[in-house]
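Before going further, it is useful to explain how the protein records used in this thesis are read. An example of such a record is reproduced below.

***
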Amino acid sequence: MKNRSKSYTRHQRERAIQKKIGIVRNVFNWDDNEEKFLPVRGKFNKGKVHCSCWMCRYEQNLGIPKAKYQAKWHAMKKEIDLELTVDMGDN
């Protein structure tokens, strides 16, 4: 394990907090007037911003594939269609 300075640790902590505050403001549509309802800033360093209820995890409950798997699926489908058009052109 590398020895990190206190300033490095503070920087990483602040970076994580800023990222999660951005998620809360942009995704959950909180504005500056609702600042008093936000938890203490240090709470954002601790973990996830979302919850695991059925409403927040609707992709998993409804069987919607993740974006990376959807992209792979579309690429494979496109490749198969290309091969079929090339094979049809030879006859």
